[in-house]
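Ticket closed. Logging final result for Integrase.
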Amino acid sequence: MIAYEIHVGTPKTHEKRSVPYPERLAPMIEEACAGKGPEGLLFGDGVNHMRNSGDKGWFANAVRRAQAFDPSIPRLTPHDLRHTAASLAISSGANVKAVQRMLGHASAAMTLDTYADLFDDDLDAVATRLNDAMPLVALPTGPQTRYARPR
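Final structure:
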């Protein structure tokens, strides 16, 4: 969407991209694709774009339905979901170059600068990974040379 108009075509980079999704969504995506051709749109009737006009659009209505089920769900936009997916992918250890490609960014630095939010448990995870890596490091077993400690 550009200036509240839907434009159909390739993204800014003019390259098609694949968007990975969790396996648990496969049955729902297969159902949504039923009867649509390979170039059909996933959402709606497969031909016409679903208009998203702010608070009255299809996405806002979907968020309101979810909030009725679970009031703790905050107000969301499609871009919030993109940001969350990218941040969770990076936080869970996904290859940054793969996330860059998924998002269509020109560089991995742009992806990290934009989407690599530091989660509260990220620093704990670093300590855990360092601890887990320790058995891979040969620790000295013989007499040790002692060095002066910094004051």
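The chain is about 40% helix and 0% strand. No further action required.
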